[in-house]
Design a protein that fits this description.
By secondary structure, this protein is α+β, with helices and mostly antiparallel strands. It folds into 2 domains: 8-78; 100-187, no CATH class. The protein is built from 6 helices and 4 strands; from the N terminus they run ααααββββαα. The radius of gyration is 27 Å and the shape is elongated. The termini are far apart. Mean pLDDT is 76; it is low at 167-187. Pfam families: DUF2924.
Length: 194
């Protein structure tokens, strides 16, 4: 069906037909509807969604000028012109919100709750367990190691030519329990998942 023959009543039929089109036909359809080409590497499902959106915008009318301006202004507050886009915050994929992490350190018990946006401890929100571990200990710690979620790097990890661990960051490895003085050995990490 040619683009000039379409009417709003044809939308459902045209959207259903998108799944039958080849990739080349979908790309051509998008170009016909929008006047611009799709990015070179796009998955088929996303191409179908883009063509479907373009089709609906063409037949029913896209966003009005005021709405487009509001969206552009909102994007500009997030990524000002000339600035690189912010790096997406690494999402916590291992721990589910509501999980409690409990760690004993120097005779005191510390409890951290996993949230959707990070971690809560001592009435404050933190973006990482490392921030909390460093606040508790006053020294550099990997938060995942401190709370017993991740094992520390092996003590026999070879150093590079500069004497730094293989990761090259120059930070010393977290001490293993074998290297902790006896009076601190009761501070072994405990994790309670709940």
């Amino acid at each position: 069906m040619a683009k000039h023959d379409l009417a709003p009543r044809d939308i459902d039929r045209e959207l259903a037909r998108l799944g039958e089109l080849s990739l080349d036909e979908l790309k051509t359809r998008f170009r016909d509807l929008t006047g611009s080409a799709l990015p070179k590497y796009m998955r088929r499902g996303l191409i179908e969604l883009a063509v479907g959106h373009a089709l609906q915008a063409k037949l029913l009318g896209g966003l009005d000028r005021e709405t487009r301006k509001k969206l552009e202004d909102a994007v500009a507050t997030i990524v000002p012109k000339g600035e690189p886009p912010p790096k997406p915050k690494r999402q916590n994929r291992k721990l589910k919100p509501g999980t409690r992490l409990i760690r004993q350190w120097h005779g005191r018990l510390y409890e951290v709750t996993v949230t959707r946006n990070g971690f809560d401890w001592d009435g404050k929100s933190f973006g990482s367990l490392t921030e909390i571990a460093q606040t508790i200990t006053g020294t550099k710690w990997n938060g995942w190691v401190f709370f017993g979620i991740k094992k520390p790097a092996p003590a026999n990890m070879k150093a590079n030519r500069a004497g730094h661990p293989k990761n090259g960051r120059g930070t010393p490895l977290c001490p293993t329990l074998d290297s902790v003085p006896p009076e601190s050995s009761s501070s072994a990490p405990e994790s309670v998942h709940g």
